[in-house]
Amino acid sequence: MSENFNLTQPDANRILRVILDYSSKIASETNREKIMYLLTGMGRDIVNADRCSFWLVDTDKNEIFTKIADSVEEIRIPLSSGIVGYGITNDTPVISNNAYSDERFLKDVDARTGYSTRNIIAIPIKNSDNETIGAFEALNKKDGADFNENDLMLLFITISIAGKLLESFDTHNVLETIFKSATKIANETNIDRLLLLLADLARDILNADRCTLWLADRERKELWTKVAHGLSSVRMPLQSGFAGYAVTNNTPVICNDPYNDSRFNPDVDKETGYSTKSIISIPVKTIQNDVLGAIQCINKKSHIQKFKENDLEKLMLVGGYAAQTLEVTGLYKEIEDTQKEIIFTLGTACEFRSKETSNHVKRVAEYSIILALEYGLDMEEAERIKQASPMHDIGKIAIPDAILNKPGKLTPEEFDIMKTHAQIGCDMLAVSKRKTLSTAAIIAGEHHEKWDGTGYPKGKSGEDIHIYGRISALADVFDALGSDRCYKKAWDTDKILELFKEQKGRHFEPKLIDIFFANLDMFLYIREQYRD
Question: Across the strands, what pairs with 134?
């Protein structure tokens, strides 16, 4: 082509002015869409065309689309369609000076836009890995002239700039994806949801079809994941597959021909009907180089469907972030587990002091989670109520033994002292900002309130009583009535049920009474399971 590259001096001067003018504008612009618009303008003016467009490949939909087209809305067509699609799929520049006589020309685009295409020049755009990521198209050479080899060579100037800029956009997109995910990940402490968020991050950054974050269970010599794109919870031997290889050898793996690699296990594809074409897997390591697990991405969604070294660099970035996040989450879980253990131990100690068994707090906890879930609370909140409920009577630690363990009926003065345990318990726990202890404070303070306002310590009524208090009230009373106490014998079940029917809308919220009777079999099973 270079042998036919001839320009007159006036044309050369004009083109130089165009390049310098647009280069200056591009250098001072930071908005990606505006930069692409300037590049189309530069290409259009260099070859003296009427219209120019950038077309980008969308591997997800197997389409190409115009990100910027002069005076035209976004257009999408099948990847191999039209002269542009031909240039992309055959990796070759195309000049067509009689579009409507060219069988490759897609007339539908003109019909949709109202434009009349006479001639076309299209050149594929590649990245540094020599992958075709789109194409540049110029339409209708002005003055009725044909496009020629000179135009082709001149457009390569625009293409070379565009390829580098598109790669820089890719870097920007990676950072943008990380920043958008960071807040969600930082605020997540549930390991199942955390694994999904980290897998989503890796999949989006690498433009992969699927991604899984595997964690190593050294005791069982297995890799496990609660969440995998397209899969349910799974476990596999520690050394199995590419993820196992990455973990046990502490090394990353890229394989773009898995069916010819002995490390690949095709049974998963057979079971799921999936077709694995490429895999990248890296160990997830702490700063001390301890391997926590592996991140594995499957099937690159590019034109050539292969993972490259730059994908490895991106995934290593995610891997480092994942390791730090999992370490922090592990520490948080350890703190949370310790907190739960302390709560249960304190709750049990209080029950022992009042001559009750630890099974009372276990039963109340199990009743509470049933009521919470059936009421419509989500699992996280219901679980928190369960964990906090053992502290419902923690305030009794301040009540004198003579009152707490009195075998007969309390005097009015003694009962007034006994009632203070609710507010004392609330005040003891309310100083904490931890979610579980804050929940426990509400339960301690409000589990003796009544729906009709006749309870204590504040005489709250209806929905002014927190749902945690309403749930705990029913759970605690059901268990207390069915258990022996120093001041009474256990009631039989029929008597308890009759009372509950009477107390619907009085002591207890009507909706919770309905839930209780609808799930009575479960309540009775729990009572039997944790019998004193």
Answer: 56, 125
Q: Which two tokens stand for residue 479?
A: 């268990």
H/E stretch holding 18 reads helix 9-27
376-425 per-position pLDDT tens digit: 999 989 999 998 998 888 888 888 888 888 888 899 999 999 999 999 98
Q: Nearest CA to 293 among 207, 231, 227? A: 227
Q: Rounded to an integer, what distance in angstroms lies between the CA atom of residue 492 and that of residue 504?
A: 19
Residue 457: asked if its preceding bond is cis (omega within 30°), the reply is yes
Q: What is the pLDDT of residues 460-501, one digit of tens each?
A: 999 999 999 999 999 999 999 998 776 678 899 999 999 999
Q: Report d(CA 81, CA 64) in Å as an integer.
A: 9
| Mutual angle of helices 191-206 and 149-186, in 10-degree steps | 170
Q: Is the bond preceding 93 in cis, omega lying within 30 degrees of 0?
A: no
Decide if 389 contacts 365 (C-beta within 8 A). Answer: yes
Tokens representing 449? 């309130």
* Angstrom distances, CA of residue 455 to CA of 27, 382, 477, 499: 73, 24, 13, 16
* Integer Cα distance of 445 and 422 in angstroms: 5
Using the structure block, give the residue that is written with the tokens 């100690």: 349
Q: Which residues of the chain have pLDDT under 50?
A: 1-3, 68-71, 171-172, 331-332, 355
The predicted structure's pLDDT at residue 240? 86
In angstroms, the CA 316 to CA 447 distance is 51
- The structure tokens listed for 53 are 């467009």
Please enumerate in sequence order all residues whose Cβ is within 8 A of that of 518, keeping only pairs 6 or more positions apart, or say none: 374
Whole-angstrom distance, CA of residue 180 vs CA of residue 387? 32
* 84-123 core/surface letters (b: 16 or more CB in 10 A; e: else): bbbbbbeeebbbbeebeebebbbeebeeeeebebbbbbbb
